[in-house]
């Protein structure tokens, strides 16, 4: 007979999900009510306001898609891209490739700007391509590339899109609440994110926001959106605001309780304080890793504080080491993807997984596992370097 599932207690320091705070888990255990219950509708309005705060936007169309970040991505493309539309897609990792596939699946033409994995999107390459083509519908790029740990210059890229009269579509799955993100100030037109990274809620919901320019494009489509579930003209009847709502789908009630609580916690901390916290603990982690003799895979000026790509030393068995961390320390770190598979580890410092306790545990466990494999690392210095970094920040 199959019995109840009881997962092991893990410390999640991979590329996501991150540790879910006990307050969020407790919120999800509250009584389920109907998705059209007046009390639930009131909470929906609060979620919208809290997401507007987190994204620094006043966009009326700001809501959580009832599906993970990949559906948020599809929601942006399926509403904005029509057959024949030309879309510039920037690829410097795995997730730019997924943008390309979305454009093509919905009949658009993807004009690619490709940069090496581990480097930021080249603003100059994007500008050159914009100058070569007329009637570009949108510019799509990943703000924080989870597969590499690189951040691109979203402010500059969105400004380019505006200058050349096209929309910007931004993947902010890993950037929301982890690094500076200014939807209105930067002129972002469509953006999607996820709940399981720096918001520290469970996976399964994708915040999205659309500017008024993007909404005009949705309203003026020549063809009907090929997705009924993700059609924003329909979804807004449910998420539009006020007490009168048109039934669209049965929202994931308890999951939205969790998102609400995580956003309340973010508001309590302050969005700018959250950005600073992620940088603060990244600095300590990086100091410890470098004291050990490990090398960061991404240049400092484009390095994500919340997703740290670390070069794997020669001779180290990647899978065996990550397996040892999981079995002996119940600690999860991420493997490399695509071109970086077997070359880097991806260490997440996101949301509730971004703390001094997480940094010190990771450094201790990683050092011990590397020494066991006979890796050429300097033992005994990582913790001291991280502690000195923390002491300096307090002084």
TrEMBL record:
Protein keywords: Aminotransferase, Pyridoxal phosphate, Transferase
Keyword Transmembrane helix: no
Key word 4Fe-4S present: no
Any GO molecular function: transaminase activity
Superkingdom of the organism of origin: Bacteria
InterPro entries assigned to the protein according to its UniProt record, in alphabetical order: Aminotrans_V_dom, Aminotrans_V_PyrdxlP_BS, SP_NH2Trfase/AEP_transaminase
UniProt domain Aminotransferase class V: residue ranges: 32-317
Cofactor needs: pyridoxal 5'-phosphate
One of the Pfam families matching this protein, by short name: Aminotran_5
Coiled coil: none
Similarity comment: Belongs to the class-V pyridoxal-phosphate-dependent aminotransferase family.
Protein name, UniProt field: Alanine--glyoxylate aminotransferase family protein
Annotated organism of origin: Marinobacterium weihaiense
């Amino acid at each position: 007979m199959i019995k109840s599932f009881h997962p092991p207690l893990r410390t999640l320091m991979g590329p996501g999900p991150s540790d879910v705070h006990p307050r969020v888990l407790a919120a999800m255990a509250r009584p389920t009510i109907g998705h059209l219950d007046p009390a639930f509708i009131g909470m929906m309005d609060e979620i919208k306001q809290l997401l507007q705060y987190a994204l620094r936007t006043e966009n009326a169309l700001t809501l959580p898609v009832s599906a993970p970040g990949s559906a948020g991505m599809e929601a942006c493309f399926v509403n904005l891209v029509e057959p024949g539309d030309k879309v510039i897609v920037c690829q410097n990792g795995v997730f730019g490739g997924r943008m390309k596939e979305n454009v093509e699946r919905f009949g658009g033409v993807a004009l690619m700007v490709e940069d090496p994995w581990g480097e930021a999107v080249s603003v100059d390459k994007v500008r050159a391509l914009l100058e070569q083509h007329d009637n570009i519908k949108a510019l799509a790029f990943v703000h924080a590339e989870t597969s590499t740990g690189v951040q691109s210059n979203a402010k500059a890229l969105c400004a380019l899109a505006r200058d050349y009269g096209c929309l910007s579509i931004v993947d902010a799955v890993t950037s929301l609440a982890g690094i500076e993100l200014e939807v209105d100030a930067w002129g972002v037109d469509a953006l999607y994110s996820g709940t399981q990274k720096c918001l520290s809620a469970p996976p399964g919901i994708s915040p999205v926001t659309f500017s008024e320019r993007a909404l005009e494009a949705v309203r003026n489509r020549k063809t009907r959106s090929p997705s009924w579930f993700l059609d924003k003209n329909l979804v807004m009847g449910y998420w539009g605001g006020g007490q009168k709502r048109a039934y669209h789908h049965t929202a994931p009630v308890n999951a939205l309780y969790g998102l609400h609580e995580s956003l309340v916690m973010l508001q309590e901390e302050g969005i700018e304080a959250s950005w600073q916290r992620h940088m603060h603990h990244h600095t300590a982690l990086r100091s410890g890793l470098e004291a050990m003799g490990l090398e960061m895979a991404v240049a400092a000026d484009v390095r994500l504080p919340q997703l740290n790509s670390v070069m794997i030393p020669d001779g180290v068995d990647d899978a065996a080491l990550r397996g040892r961390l999981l079995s002996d320390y119940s600690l999860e770190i991420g493997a490399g993807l695509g071109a970086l598979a077997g070359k880097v580890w991806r260490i997440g410092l996101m949301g509730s997984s971004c703390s001094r306790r997480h940094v010190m545990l990771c450094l201790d466990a990683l050092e011990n596992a590397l020494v066991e494999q006979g890796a050429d690392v300097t033992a005994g210095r990582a913790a001291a370097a991280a502690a000195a970094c923390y002491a300096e920040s307090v002084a």
